[in-house]
Amino acid sequence: MTRVPSRTTATFCVLVVAATVFALLQAMVIPVLPRIERALDTDPRSVTWVVSAYLLSAAIATPIVGRLGDAIGKKPMLVTALALLSAGSLGAAFAPDIRLMTAARVLQGVGGAVMPLAFGIVREEFPGERVPFAIGVLAAIGGIGASVGLVLAGPIVDLWGYRWLFLLPALVTAATAVAAVLVVRPSTTRAAPISWAPAPFLAGALATFVLATTNASAWGWTSGRTLGLYALAVALGACWYRLESRAHHPLIDLRMMAIPAVRSGNAVSFLLGFAMFAVYAFVPQILQAPASTGYGVGASVTESGLLMLPLASAVFLGGVATARLVRRAGPRPVVAAASVVIAACLAAVAWRYATAWQLVAVLAVYGVALGVSLAALATLVVVSVPASQSAVAGAVNFNARNLGGAVGTAVMATVVTAELGVGGLPLGSGYTAGFVLLALSMAAATALAVAIPRPARAPEAGATP
């Protein structure tokens, strides 16, 4: 393997820290929503905006900031994203009410562009043969953030209070932004300037889609509000597509999106997100449910987080091992095989999940396959486009996974809570049906993965794919 220069290694360390903090912030807040609700003297409906505002902001900002990274430089946009992430975290730590907390979470959501910007910097900084390994590590970090965040949330809140869930990331991201200024090299490639006219329509389509999806289980999937927002999302999306296809310098180059490897990779990423985020959201609920339900373990928040640690470790190991697998077999069989394993593990959870050690063992296998799939898909998309489009391509792929996660979590919530038992807790049959649905989604991902072509040599900037 080519020896990596020390400055490149330092850059990679900065990117790893940035990706880790962002990944943790995605999940650490979820277990402590009831405590935030009490501390800010708000209600259950309002406190959910602590999560929803973050998702909406990330959905809108990620492709736009990624494209800006390709146009004006990945380094300045990485520093900007880290600075906004730090400012949002600091604002959330000291927010006196739910309105300012929600505004701070909007700022944090802009930090979602950290991951695709990191992929783009790796593409430029690392020797070609080292790119899959570096992207694999970063993608794996993105995948383990939810489970590690659940582990850390309980001890941090018990020791210092919920505000430190935001204050610690604020300090770390501020230091990381300074380090990025010092060690990350300026981009060597630039994309064309951006035609901004389509951007509001893209932002509106993404925002209305995420808003409808995250609230569909509460409003009802066929309610007027839900269907109205979906109709508005479709209309705005159609306007965006029409303007984008005619733009001289599009925000998202539709020719890039038509590259077979990119198109197939994004479709598989959507389905992977559909299953992945639902697992992260509902496995802790199974672990924390009382044993009297017939399926629960009765674990505390901290205990359930610790039981998720093997999953987190397995995701990281899978991501690290992916580069060698892809080099030997190519991305298509690797992603297809990983999808088969994920589907089988989800079916096993649906079949039997009452014993804690069985559930943890199955999820460890699932985690290895998840890490492989995350890393292989990220590498596939980033290396299939010109270097001048790597950040926006990574951003679109990252967004596809997150949008799939929003849909999967909402659908899973609807299925699991369709029928409630004593004490308002879901029945075991709801979880069975939900995990069967997730297994079927990964079976569909397997079929799409089989159609992924081997990526051709990425075209030069400005060339037509």
From TrEMBL:
Residues 11-457 form the Major facilitator superfamily (MFS) profile domain. PROSITE patterns: MFS. InterPro entries: MFS (IPR011701), MFS_dom (IPR020846), MFS_trans_sf (IPR036259). CDD domains: MFS_MMR_MDR_like (cd17504). It is found in: Cell membrane. The chain crosses the membrane at residues 12-34, 46-65, 77-96, 102-122, 134-156, 162-184, 196-221, 227-243, 264-287, 307-326, 333-353, 359-383, 403-425, 431-452. It holds the Pfam family MFS_1. It comes from the Bacteria. SUPFAM superfamilies: MFS general substrate transporter (SSF103473). Keywords: Membrane, Transmembrane, Transmembrane helix, Transport. It is a multi-pass membrane protein. This is MFS transporter. Gene3D superfamilies: MFS general substrate transporter like domains (1.20.1250.20), Multidrug resistance protein D (1.20.1720.10). Coiled coil: none annotated.
